[in-house]
Amino acid sequence: GKGIAGIIFEQLLGRSLKAPIADVNAPDYAIHFTAYRHEQLFLEEVGERFLNEHQGDIRGLIKDIIKSPYFRAIAADGNDIMSTGVNASFMLGPETMNTKNKRILGMEWIRDGANGFTSEFKLLYGGINSTTVLTRQRTATALSANVITTMALQLPQQLLDGDKLDDLLPNSWDSSWEDENLENDVEPTDESVRSDIQHVMARLLGEYCDEDAVELEETMALFTEIKESEGAQIAWKAVLSLLLMDYNYTHSDLVLGQDDGVL
């Protein structure tokens, strides 16, 4: 069943079946192997349906393949998920994350008053130098993950110091909170905080949460809990750090065949 499914699959899609890469040390080995494995699982499924459900009727097999994402992707552009085989996510390297932060937040990571990668640290955390290192490292390491976590924890305070929070939190931020003693009577309303959480989630994560979304309620609860004990400034810094460590912010989708440059 699987063998016949493979033959029909090649004829309908006009390409050969994917083959596993022999070199396990190849840069994109894991991604190519995932694409190969997904295709094999699909052929096993439709091959079994061909024998058992369709009772060997080739028309049923053809219909299953035509209805699959693989066939529908033929008419899509070259960056479509199934036309290339798989859409894989990978953690951004710290240098790439720094570029993303500058684009979205308007600020790069600072340590001791200078760029965090040219002052204290001298390593390439999976980045490139355009001379001898030309390909970005897409395999997450403990070192790169720790640097990204440090960036997420430190950036909210740097945004505060750089007067960047007025734009990021237009409804609930008050510059008078820059006094960490918070000896003032100004407090954000729940409505303004909820609105700004929706705004910052859309800006950082690319998703707008409805009023009753679980993610919005959980983030709002975190803000309220910290604000009651530590104040609004600390609460916002905690929420921003949480979002900067969110999977949707720290990871990017890689589509095979797409340009290697990310951000």
List the helices and strands and how they pair.
Layout: H1 2-13, H2 29-52, H3 58-66, H4 69-72, H5 81-84, E1 87-91, H6 94-105, E2 110-111, E3 114-115, H7 142-161, H8 165-168, H9 190-205, H10 214-230, H11 232-244, H12 247-250, E4 251-255
Antiparallel strand pairs: 1-4, 2-3
Shape: elongated
| Secondary structural class | mainly alpha
Sheet with the most strands, sense and barrel status: 2 strands, antiparallel
Roughly how much helix do the residues carry, as a percent range?
40-55%
Strand content: 5-15%
Q: If you average the pLDDT, what whole number results?
A: 76
The run of helices and strands is HHHHHEHEEHHHHHHE
The helix count comes to: 12
Whole-number radius of gyration?
24 Å
Number of strands: 4
Give start-end ranges of low-pLDDT stretches. Answer: 76-87, 180-185, 255-263
The largest beta-sheet arranges its strands as: 1-4
First and last CA, distance = 44 Å
Counting copies of identical and different chains, the oligomeric state is: single chain
How do you describe this structure in short?
This protein has 263 residues and is mostly helical. It is 53% helix and 5% strand.
Structure notes:
- The chain is mainly α.
- The chain is 53% helix and 5% strand.
- The chain contains 12 helices and 4 strands.
- The strands form 2 sheets. The chain has a two-stranded antiparallel sheet. Strands 2-3 form a two-stranded antiparallel sheet.
- β2 (110-111) and β3 (114-115) form a beta hairpin.
- α1 crosses α2 (29-52).
- The longest helix is centred in the N-terminal third of the chain and has 24 residues, at 29-52.
- The chain is elongated and about 70 Å long.
- Mean pLDDT is 76; it is low at 76-87, 180-185 and 255-263.
